[in-house]
Amino acid sequence: MNIILFGPPGAGKGTQADNISKNFNLHKISTGDLLRIEMERKTDLGKKIKSKMDHGMLVSDDIITNLISKILSAIKSVEGVIFDGYPRNLKQVKILDTLIKEHNRRISCVLSLDADKETLKKRILGRIICTKCGMTFNKNFNPPKEKTHDCGLNYLRLRSDDTEKTINNRIEIYANKTLPILDYYKDQKILHKIDASGEIDKIYDEIRGIITSLET
Length: 216
Ligand code: ADP
Hints:
The protein is α/β, with parallel strands linked by helices. The chain has helices at 13-24, 31-40, 44-54, 61-74, 90-102, 117-125, 164-178, 182-187, 200-215, and strands at residues 2-6, 27-30, 81-84, 107-114, 127-130, 136-138, 156-157, 191-195. Adenosine-5'-diphosphate binds at residues 9, 13, 31-32, 35, 52-53, 56-59, 64, 85-86, 88, 92, 161, 170.
């Protein structure tokens, strides 16, 4: 099973992608996480993308395609994948279609999370990430605990793009560039919309129900 997880910044894609990946044994491919690793390691690619990322702008399609095709080639034996934050515009949708065919995979469903703008903003401004394992927390809604988070508390950071200044820009880019691609998946009858304004566990229950119904 191969799933695309879709949603504006702050909708909870990262958190739910981790839940889905763990419980359904799917390999998570998060373009945001991959790009942040490059920035953290200060690689040539990391230096090149930093300004775009910090301003909430999309990184070039060529860079993203390169990352995705390398991973898909490296995980040929892995049965299922969950894409988090990819594809993000129509060009990426077309490229993914080609890559998926080349790798003999099929997209089983697209889960689209959504919430109102105020909720998104609150979540983004409270977000904390672990730079060691990539897990996402929120200081208000889902704080990291030393006992349950194996990496400890030393790797926790705010994201450099989670600022009041970039939020509106990111939500706007999502509305203009990313949201229009939902129609493409709606036409294929694989789109599921999920209200992501509630609690993490409740949202996950709904997601689990949808995925389980596809498995049977
Ligand atoms: P969010 O959904 O909260 O914006 P992500 O971690 O998915 O968080 O993405 C963070 C940033 O990484 C984006 O603002 C963008 O700069 C870059 N990025 C992530 N995925 C893509 C993609 N598929 N195409 C282009 N840029 C991307």
